[in-house]
């Protein structure tokens, strides 16, 4: 697109494919991922101190969890609306100046031609650079790409790692987490997450000293 401006209106994401069976498989892999992330933190940081921002880049598996979450649930599934500021061609189509263009990142991230088992939560697909070259755009692309990406990724990594280091997490009543998506611009959960967290016994001294 020759120059891009923000379009004034917003659109809703097209409904995604049904994925109830993938959801239960995904939930099992989420529990495993949580345990794996906790083990990684225990090895890299230990339990005698709180992790710091400097530790987070060394937590490779935790980064994979963040990437896989942003792949399956991009916070802005249709990015933000763009508007062509000149006549241009997109994918072979003539797009007149002033046309609103939406990018369906949600569908791109779940494209079966690009991803194996696209509806399943598999952080391992990002390990050892395996997903390099795959098209992921949770922060958009080009000159209107999110300027807050680095801050966002650092904050998410730090918050998630701290929650996993300090607490054991369980589902309420053992019920599966309902991952159904609600409508809206930012992919809210239709059913809010309820979880039980307990301070990890190994972290008790650290938590009590705060
Ligand atoms: C997980 C967190 C975040 C996600 C997934 C996210 C995602 C996005 C996306 C998809 C866009 C639109 C890109 C496009 O249309 O091509 C965007 C734009 C933008 N984001 Fe973020 N963002 C996040 C956090 C942040 C933070 C922390 C800040 C600021 C501190 C921020 C500031 C902005 C701004 C100012 C724009 C507009 C850029 C422009 O229009 O040129 N974002 N973001």
UniProtKB/TrEMBL annotation:
This is Cytochrome P450. The keyword Oxidoreductase applies. Residues 1-29 are annotated as: Disordered. Heme binds at residue 146. InterPro entries: Cyt_P450, Cyt_P450_CS, Cyt_P450_E_grp-I, Cyt_P450_sf, Plant_Cytochrome_P450_Monoox. Keywords: Heme, Iron, Membrane, Metal-binding, Monooxygenase, Oxidoreductase, Transmembrane, Transmembrane helix. Its cofactor is heme. Pfam families: p450. Residues 18-29 have a biased composition (Low complexity). Belongs to the cytochrome P450 family. One of its GO terms (molecular function) is oxidoreductase activity, acting on paired donors, with incorporation or reduction of molecular oxygen. PROSITE patterns: CYTOCHROME_P450.
